[in-house]
Write a structure and sequence with these properties.
This protein is mostly helical and 147 residues long. Helix content is 92%, strand content 0%.
Length: 147
Amino acid sequence: MAKFAYNMQSILNIKYKMETQEKIAYANAQAKLRQEEEKLRRFRERRNFYENKMRGSMEISIDVRELYECNQGIELMKEAIREQKKEVARAQADVDKAHERLNEVVKERKTHEKLKENALEEFMAELNAQESKEIDELVSYNYASAT
């Protein structure tokens, strides 16, 4: 029996490798986004800490130096939060780009898999046609020999 060999198997193998690489890139981009979001969360917590400390200082007694330090801390955290939001947006854009590239590579891989399936179906049809022809010849030979 003949063996099926897909003539573009090497291209399909490359598509599998590309898909794996894009999955890794996508996972890395998501990890980076999570890190940036965590950093933003910590900045917000520090800002809240300074705000609460400032409120507490104002309730007990007014310590100008402590109020000034808290106010400076709050302002620094606000600036850090603004900058960190930009970093989160960049990381989100990177995730979106990686997702688009991954989708494109998956689409290409599926296209090549479909081409392989079609080639296999065509091969099987040709093989069945060849077997039918051989059976018909054998039956014709046996019939002609019997008469």
